[in-house]
Amino acid sequence: MLIDGNIGGSIDGTAGASLHEIQEQVGLAERAGFDGVWSTEVSRDPFLPLLLAAENAPRLHVGTAIAVAFARNPMTLATVANDMQSFSSGRFTLGLGSQIKPHIERRFSMPWSAPAPRMREFVRALHAIWESWQNQTALDFRGDYYNHTLMTPMFRPPRNEFGPPQVMIAAVGPQMTSVAAEVADGMLVHGFTTERYLREVTVPQVKSALAKAGKTFEDFTLSYPGLVVTGSDERQFEEAATAVRKQIAFYGSTPAYRAVLDLHGWGDLQTELHRLSKIDDWASMTRLIDDTVLRTFAVVGEPDAAAAEISRRFGGIIDRFTLYTPYGLDAATRSTVVSGVHNRPTTP
């Protein structure tokens, strides 16, 4: 199992006000021993931080987790992803997410429709565009949402010596999970996921969808941003626990994620979290996340113990584990967790 980090985020403890700070984060990630870094489209462009990572950390894999697909069109995204794949010498993964209707229509002023069918067609259009560029063939993609039928020599990039980038799709429900298995190279699992939900719901859904698509689980990448509570002393540990409780409460208030809580018999918790979120009572929401809920949704422990628990819970089912810490984590603690995961055998 590979272990990755985040750069340039606003909810994961890596927030920075400038690209200069992100450049420093890249250096910290490389020194920590991460295998790769992800950039999330929240309050800044997701690609520029990865450009810095690709240039300054030639060992790291780089990827978007996620870039908002429906805020763009397949041609614009195919172009920037192709450039990123070339610049990184084949170390780039394009991770896509749909976002939700209000953001697509009101923040990005773009059209919204059934997200799963649109995402399926979006990724197919990407591959059609890349194939046209790679093989110097006519572009003729015609779909229900996207049509790409013009590619003149002036606008055709040269053949990418590293081939098209890997594409992964962020999925929560069964429909998008099926789309990811059908048309993508892997899936970005949502951070509001437990080990039990992964084993009992997500992985069986993925395997079933892959079988229908004639693909194998071994050739499909699962990437998971796992919440972790750790620290080098008691004060840091308590600050970490509070930050993660807040994050769990925020996710738990979202009706779309109720199924995870339902599996554990905590459906009433979701109802109450949602009610409190409507009146902006975030303090009460955080207090509702007791130790049992915290330890179910997050790995909790001192750095060495956290590394061992990450490997135990996820080593047999997750290909890439991203250390998700919505708080500041000192470099020594981060390095201890990363090296601990690398040095422990995974369990099925």
UniProtKB/TrEMBL annotation:
GO MF annotation: an example: oxidoreductase activity, acting on paired donors, with incorporation or reduction of molecular oxygen
Positions of the Luciferase-like domain: 13-312
Pfam family, one: Bac_luciferase
InterPro entries, A to Z: F420-G6PD/mer, Lucif-like_OxRdtase_MSMEG_2256, Luciferase-like_dom, Luciferase-like_sf
PANTHER family documented for this protein: CONSERVED HYPOTHETICAL ALANINE AND PROLINE-RICH PROTEIN (PTHR43244:SF2), PTHR43244
NCBIfam families: F420_MSMEG_2256
Protein name as it appears in the record: Probable F420-dependent oxidoreductase, MSMEG_2256 family
